[in-house]
Amino acid sequence: MTEQGAVPDFGDSERPPENEQSDDAQRQTDDDPDCSADAAEAGADSETKRTGATSVVESLETAGVDTVFGVQGGAIMPVYDALYDSEDIRHVTMAHEQGAAHAADAYGMVTGDPGICMATSGPGATNLVTGIADADMDSEPMVALTGQVPTELVGNDAFQETDTVGVTTPITKSNYFASSPDTVGEDVSTAFALADHGRQGPTVVDLPKDVTQGETDAEPSEPAVPGTVSVQERAPTEDVAAAAETIADADKPVILAGGGVVKGEATDEVRAFATEYDVPVATTMPGIGAFPEDHDLAMEMAGMHGTGYANMAVSLTDCLVAIGTRFDDRLTGGVDSFAPDAEVVHVDIDPAEISKNIEADHPLVGDAGTVVEQLADAMPAAPDTEDWVAQCQEWKVEYPLDYAVPSDQSDDGSTPSRPPEDEPVKPQYVVETVDAATDDDTIVTTGVGQHQMWACQYWTYTEPRTWVSSHGLGAMGYGVPSAIGARVAADDDQSVVCFDGDGSFMMTCQELVVAVREQMDITVFVLNNEAIGMVRQWQDAFFEGRRMASEYPWVPKFDKLAEAFGADGFRIEDYDDVPDTVEAALAVDGPAVVDVYIDPTEEVYPMVPSGGDNGQFALSRDHL
Amino acid sequence: MSGRQDQEGLPGPAPTDRQRPTGRRNAQGIRIDPEAEAEHPPRRTVISALVEHEPGVLARVSGLFSRRQFNIESLTVADTQNDDWARITVVVEEPDPGIDQIEKQLEKVVPVIHVRELAEDAVTRELVVVKVDAERPHEVHAITEMYNGKTLDAGPRTITVELTGDEQKIDDAIDAYRQFGIREIARTGQTALARGETKTAVVPDHLK
């Protein structure tokens, strides 16, 4: 705990000067009489005049929205003005729009309901784009509301004009350009419903200023998806029967649980099926949390940096029951060698995922939980998996996740209870230590890179919706804002920790100010190797060690940086600092950052090189 | 945490010492059966989509084709019998899995009401406008007659004709005009309806 770690009190004269202009922060934290007078005046105004913006906010309230993550700006001001009067909606003022989008995405991941982010036109909207693309890749429910220049200026290259609908079309389920104050509320309701419907994903509503300022009598409508959209919940009975027969006949079945198991709330059904029929379960990265990793049947994550045992099982299975996965290339490696002996049963709510990358012998389109239950009911017999399960257990012993601990300096040969000083800290040890020090329902968020892989590998996930990461897009900088979104979404007694890398942290660390302003209890562990480590690892493996632009000659002292933001800062330099400092940081009731100087030579293994054969995963660089 | 002391990598049998699967898949993720190899050559087909007639719908559809690298030969879009609907007709050249993907991805575009690949016997037509040199007007006229075309404009230097037909007929006619010297060609791309009683698009009742 550092001296400067005291909780800032924004209600008194200590308030940072830049905050004085923030009406929003003032409104939420102050009882300043001047401010209340302003509020009353604004409230009176908007009662006499119902606008498109009123309609937008009422539609959000009707949809049950409780939080909006956003950043103010010219073209979105009317919507913010309408939000001023909302008693149901909390606005979290972010530092940057990318942070707003990632926070909304993480909120969606933790709650299962669409996260809402908001930004102005032009740069506000384009700054959201990374977060929207992230939500699209990971099927996270999200609605982004963007300001737009007045309709009459659209197409004129007006100040802060960007074709937001054009820019976001490829990265959304759909998007809407609001055309009238009378229908803008319905646009928002539709966007909300669509984001949450079937395979979840992001939607955008672009809000021209004249539309949000224009008067209307329109009443808010209940969220409903457009008539052209439909989802099949149950798979056809005969297809289910044929798939069940294949599973029952299999000698070496494996369930591959994807993100759809978590998002489809199907973890109970999958667990029941796996345990009833003794089928080992591997997961994809977004599928982490779909099956408890401390279970005997858990093979944990498969794919590029998956466990050796998961990759052996997926490689040699004769029946792959893939549920809610889109067979990303980081999972499959080269498709020619992916589960090549397996009949594939593919359960997915999105028909377009069937046979997109890996041909499904038994395509079952439907809701994950519903179809897995259908399968369980249709099983003619249990497969005989005794030998196979034993083989999987053997692989667990043969290919343990492991890391070097410092050599024992003592003469008697006994294992030291705690690693000695002056040894570089292994990042895996930090992950395990934090895991041991926190409850099972602790939410882990990450940036992208080596630290993210160690957080996958060395944390034992047992609950769904406790793993929050940027999987498909691989957006560095996801860590801090996603921890903020997760914190807002989580139960009060749930802990939120973020594992970040020094490279990822530097991309969005400004969002720490939000955690400080809102006194959010998050703990960020920056696994600092003064490099963009995953790139360096690849340079060493595939680019003859030519470390171009991957090593940083200088990185900030992140503990001091945290203190400058008003958060608590800690630093770990030695092995024996780890347990106590982790405990102290977790004990802080508010935002804390731990700058962990990790062994810069540590690399991520196992590894299947890009396009490689999963079963041929490398255990060291020599195998690549 | 175990007591591994080295930096040599993780423990376990090396890749060369592991059991390996015997099968293979092709580049499309399809398991290759040694007895009947499942390679799909590209084929040309017509896909018809009925869409809601709203701004930007063409951009959504055409953007989908480009970003998913679907190979399209032509794309037409225009009104239908219902003011709220438009019909998009796309000629594509893809292997079967690609055609399947095109249909499914189109189906996901929100304003799309219905998508189908048309059968081979579908009624397809294309219109072309060809401008040729006018040095041999009688011969140009004869070719135009032969293909049931129409002369739209005839001047001292150029003749412009219009022809309609299926893709093959248009290709043949253009070949025939080459002898005169073709100055410019504008083709509409194919448009099509399913033959006879078969519906080109099935509209759910709640959208009628």
What are the SSEs and their pairings?
The complex is a heterodimer of chains A (624) and B (208).
Chain A: H1 23-29, H2 33-48, H3 52-62, E1 67-70, H4 77-83, E2 90-93, H5 97-111, E3 115-119, H6 123-137, E4 142-148, H7 164-168, E5 174-177, H8 184-196, E6 202-208, H9 209-213, H10 237-249, E7 253-257, H11 259-263, H12 267-277, E8 281-283, E9 298-301, H13 308-316, E10 319-323, H14 329-332, E11 343-348, E12 362-365, H15 368-378, H16 386-398, H17 427-437, E13 443-446, H18 450-458, E14 467-468, H19 479-489, E15 496-501, H20 502-508, H21 512-517, E16 523-528, H22 533-542, H23 558-565, E17 568-572, H24 578-587, E18 592-597
Parallel strand pairs in A: 1-2, 1-3, 3-4, 4-6, 5-6, 7-8, 7-10, 8-9, 10-11, 11-12, 13-14, 13-15, 15-16, 16-18, 17-18
Helix pairs in contact in A: 3-4, 3-8, 5-6, 5-19, 10-15, 12-15, 13-16, 17-18, 17-24
Chain B: E1 43-52, H1 57-67, E2 72-79, E3 85-94, H2 96-108, E4 112-117, E5 123-133, H3 137-146, E6 150-154, E7 158-165, H4 167-177, E8 182-187, E9 191-193
Antiparallel strand pairs in B: 1-3, 1-4, 2-3, 5-7, 5-8, 5-9, 6-7
What structural keywords apply?
heterodimer; A: 624 residues; alpha/beta; Rossmann fold; 3 domains; 6-stranded parallel β-sheet; 24 helices; 18 strands; globular; disordered N terminus; B: 208 residues; alpha+beta; Alpha-Beta Plaits; 5-stranded antiparallel β-sheet; 4-stranded antiparallel β-sheet; 22% helix
